[in-house]
Design goal:
Layout (H helix, E strand, L loop, with lengths): L9 H19 L4 E2 L1 H8 L3 H10 L10 E2 H11 L6 E6 L3 H8 L8 E8 L8 E2 L2 E5 L3 H7 L4 E4 L3 H13 L4 E4 L12 E4 L2 H14 L4
Parallel strand pairs: 3-4, 3-7, 4-6, 7-8, 8-9
Antiparallel strand pairs: 1-2, 5-6
Helix pairs in contact: 1-4, 2-3
The structure holds adenosine-5'-triphosphate.
Length: 213
Amino acid sequence: MIEETGKIPQATAKRLPLYHRYLKYLHESGKERVSSAELSEAVKVDSATIRRDFSYFGALGKKGYGYNVSYILDFFSKTLSQDKQTNVAIIGVGNLGTALLHYNFMKNNNIKIVAAFDVDANKVGTVQQNIPIYHLNDMQDLLKENKVEVVILTVPSDEAQTTVDRLLEADVKGILNFTPARISVPKHVRVHHIDLTTELQTLIYFLENYPNK
Ligand code: ATP
């Protein structure tokens, strides 16, 4: 989760998790410095953009030295809220919801799936991966109780908007929408949309139409 990042432009903020993952890998393999060219090759962002991005958090690379990995990681851990746990809930435990329930978000970040919600009587009341599945009717109370402000939405598309309306009543601030439905939310709520089918179709389209690029 990217916290309020002050002066950092949104485009830069979006690239932070990308940089973070690679810098963490470098740190774990004992590397203390990295050049923007090296980073550029690894994360596929051009080095001028990397230098500009890094200048926002006061990391000015030195010629012949590059960037200090620990310094940047320290900045990231604060900016990306790595130092505090973010509780997340999954709404809709179908095929995709179940897969995400089993995904270990804690591996790299302090993100914890604390609860899941569904309407299917066969699923409600069960526990998967230590995560309890509750009925949707209990969602509002339980989200507040567990301080959940971020949810992953994996309900059927035609249920998306009504479910979101209920989420808004529970003061949810961020929704990762895996349904193909476009959902309406007030300005203070952020929705990020991941439509796997469209992504795959786009990839196939590009392969077919721009085979050499
Ligand atoms: P499955 O094979 O388990 O049905 P699926 O991903 O193909 O998986 P969907 O029809 O997309 O199934 O439903 C996803 C899940 O969302 C199901 O577990 C379903 O019970 C649940 N669900 C349906 N409506 C709601 C709702 N309003 N709120 C929460 N969960 C819901």
